[in-house]
Amino acid sequence: MISLDALYTTDDVQKLYQWFDQMRVDQPIWLDERSKCWHIFRYDDVRVVLNDYSRFSADIRSRTPIRSISSKRSSDFTIGLLLSIDPPQHELLRNLVTSAFSPQSIAQLSGRIKEIVQELLDNVRSSGKMDVIDDFAYALPVRVISEMLGMPTNEWYKCKHWTDELLAMQVSDAQMFSGEEPEAFRRGRQSAEEMADYFEEMIEDRRLHPRQDVISELATAEIEGRHLNNDELISFCFQLYLAGYLTTTSILGHMVACLDANPEAMQYLKEQPDKVPLAMEEVLRFSFPAWRMMRVTTSEVTLSGVTIPEGAVVMAWIASANRDPEQFTTPEKFEVSRKPNRHLSFGYGIHHCIGAPLSRLETSIALRMVLEQLPNLRRADHEPLELLDGRRIVYGLKHLPVTFTPS
After folding, report:
1. Share of the chain above pLDDT 70, in %
2. Which residues pair with residue 302 across a beta bridge?
3. Residue range 189-210: average pLDDT?
4. Which of 39, 215, 250, 286 is the least crowded, having the fewest Cβ atoms under 10 Å away?
5. How many of the other CB atoms lie within 10 Å of CB of 362?
6. Distance between CA atoms of residues 339 and 360, nearest Å
7. Strands 306-308, 301-303: parallel, antiparallel or unpaired by DSSP?
8. What does the DSSP 8-state code read for residue 144?
9. How far apart, in Å, do the first and last CA atoms of the chain sit?
10. CATH number of the domain encompassing residue 174
11. What pTM did the predictor assign?
């Protein structure tokens, strides 16, 4: 069997999907002897792992060097706070941030998102070409998130540098769970601490001088006398920036790539733009950026007849679950109007991604406007697509050059 390290470093994504197909049949629950991690491949099992927080804890901080990404901060600081804690703390903190990310709050951003998309399209329309990633898919979520947080315009790209450095902190599973901090994490600590210091300065300013932005809202939020402390707020800013930027950028890239590979689907959406939300859900199923989620067993667990010991690290493969033929008809095909489509891309249960409404809104608006304003859109070449270096963390494209009829 091909090694995990080889799978993670290849640009041939089909090799990974072929591996998932094989593992769902032959070893749906598999122990990797090198890392001692358990890997889960079938849809029903992955959903159980994501949903059952009493047996599969999201708090993996005690098992990985992630807990020490910043030597200056308390245990409240972690990259992806809401993704790595369990009830009752999870419920309290999620309630504190829910108002800022409710569907109603996110819907109010629709007008501004359209303005940003229009500006980005106006920058390239006359040229007849662009790199979807560099010229469009990166800039849209970064600008939206930066404005939500109240960041000055000339400082948006600081976070781009920091997040790229954090993305480069990829190590093998065996290194991750060896008990020793990998060199890659030591190299990334400076960027993490610079980013944390930057957000802390903003938080302190908003506590004294609140504005109309998300940091001000979260800094003053209170439930049952409880406020978010600085490290919790910083962690949430990390999560919003990393997940919001990387996820939406990757989804937009995959969306254009999927439609280019399926021209009949692109034409269908041009003729029926009201079907864009369905198409977006199929992209989320077919090519979602987050391959897997990690959990730790809180007790001995039997899953589909296999016993997993207490304290074991479990990898729930969302990408495999989303291609499970027991759940999806012809899962290997991109079906633009697939319905129902109960993919697990934004998680399941209490840890369902709080930023999902924002990502869905950004991508649906962007796709409609791209299809309306960039006629004859197609990839500039059909060379193999190059993936991001941090593919252990996120499956995204480095570049996607396209051409279209200038206007």
Report:
1. 86
2. 307
3. 90
4. 39
5. 28
6. 17
7. antiparallel
8. H
9. 51
10. 1.10.630.10
11. 0.91
